[in-house]
Amino acid sequence: MATITECREALDKLAENLAGADGSVRGAAALDRTLSCHLTDLDTTFTGRLADGRMVVESTVAGPPPEKAQIRLRMTGDDLVAMVDGRLHFAKAWASGRVGLEAGFRDLLRLRSLL
User: Which of 30, 57, 68, 85, by CA, is between 20 and 30 Å from 16?
Assistant: First the structure.
């Protein structure tokens, strides 16, 4: 099972990847939205913000998200690490129910290029 530290490192790597992206990926990441990523097996939530093509993790809290973020992810820590490492494809994990994604319809349309 992935640890909270490994999950935080995976999120930091994802943030670096987004910051260095270009084209449609950069455009999709240019949203200004609040984010939460609830790790179900660790019962921990990372909260942050997506703005100007960058993702910033602001806090780590025990349990489910304390507030409803505009973009909400739900998965296990192992799945988060596997996705960031490229061993698990997001769209397949989402379609199979391993990963949950909740966002407004317009945000989902913009985010699809990231998937």
Answer: 68
